[in-house]
Amino acid sequence: MESVDASEYSKTSDKMYELLNRFVERVGEANVVQVVTDNASNCVLAGKLLKTKRPHLYWTPYDAHCIDLMLEDIEKIPNIHNTIKRTVTLNGYIYIRPDVVNMVQRFTGERELIRPAVTRFATVFLTLQRIHKHKANLRKMFTSEEWTKIRVLRLVDGEKMLAMGYIYEAIDRAKEAIAKSFDENEEKYKAIFEIIDKRWESQLHRPLHTAGYYLNLEFFYSNEKINEDVEVVTGLYQVVARLIPSKEE
Question: What are the backbone angles phi and psi of residue 61, rounded to the nearest 5°?
Answer without folding.
Answer: -75, 155
